[in-house]
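Please check this protein record:
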Amino acid sequence: MRSERLFRILGLVDGDLVLEAGEAAAPAARRKRRWSIPMAAAACGALVCGLALARWGLGNINMGGGANAGGSGHDGGTVFMSYGGPVFPLGVLEEDVDLTAERAVIWDLAPGAYRDGEPRQWGAAVTDGYILSNSTGEDITVNALYPFTGSLQNLAERMPAVTVDGTEAEPILYAGPYSGGFQSASPDGSDTLNLAYPDSWEDYKALLSDGRYREQALGDYPVLDVPVTVYQFTDFAAPHEEYRAATQAVTFSADESETTVFTYGFNGYEGDPEEGWARHSYFVPDGVRAEPELKLLIVLGKDLEGYVLQGYQDGGCSRGEEIEGVSCTVIRQESTLDEVLDEICRYDSERYGALRGEEADTGAAFTLFRRAVGELLADMGPLPGNRCPDRYSYGFLDDLVSEARAMDRVLYLQFPVTVPAGGDVSVSASLWKAPSHDFDCSGSENVGIQGYDMVTALGSSLRFTRQTAALVNGEGVEIVRQNFGFDLAGGVSQVELDMGQEHYYLEIRVREED
């Protein structure tokens, strides 16, 4: 006897929506199937050259690039496989302020250490210092903005510490949207399945030059107060002792022109939009597998007219592999897309924190994360009227939520600075920079080279009168390529920068011990 399905709608039962798994046969046509990242990772763990290739989803590693002809004076530097982003200049929110600025950037190349104490020469500590001068007869107060590259998941190690006249500032943190684009996973370039992260300073120049990116970062929160119908799946049961990958599938008819479906906690999809059917599926939770217990199917637009629940031996959901003993409770309720995202983000934040052995973010960090998820969905999700990339076209909110946390973006620290009449104020930002690099397994001639760069004026309205750069603790490295003009062997570790030069770069290699 097939398992009974329970269906509750805020305490009301609608018999028309209670379907037994055997009341309809699964559609024969199969057009598309998509596995979520955890499943793909389990099946294809050897696909990439080690887990050090950290940016992976549906092929979102930037493997393009090699070395441009290098050397002192070469303006471009190497196009690395992984680009760490430049050090940006301090800016102010106000336009046409009567201040001048001097800047001194110090790259500290002292070696660090692994957790076991072994020395490690990777990354650089950067001190980006400024003197803001006011030659007028009145105090000038500005909202200073310090931009930096990073993601929401690496804020703890990447966020700069800011001081004003030696006193630690308490800035407000803003996060801009995803700083990259999308590229094809196919040789013919016919799709937009892969992420395409910025791979050079020119990408950031294109992103920031017109000010719209910063305006969005500092702007209002995207509102998604759109009515949706939510189906929550809970109270799971399955014969896990016999079928370790026991799967629950939900099949329904829907017209994509009238109905948009999102899921959270689901693992697979197949369907045929032309024939008007879809099947979403998930591994039935067993208390062991590391996947979300929260299973939601969210309907935007015309509600489902019915659905079929069916258990399968595994995630393939193949005809002939149906099984009994798979059951769940389905709760249907009315909500809004914003309310659902609130629930998902809080759940995902708690789960993410637990996996890392940390408490879930509940303050400003969570607010940024929640905003980033809503922003990504509003900008690039499969909402009516959106030009949605193929990567998000299936409506898997798991991917969107996890990538909102991990995506490269430009973040801003905003803090007030008052420069007294006829005086000056020092502002300093201290940060750790991960280097641009090529992956160890790539076979590239640039493996082992660390790239660092800075821009002199991009995104800033300050009037700079002087900029300098310096290297300290560089005894353990050799300079491979640069356009700064450093000469460590000749004792030149501090240089004056040309204000007409937009971009400076430094590429180093750790010296081999004799």
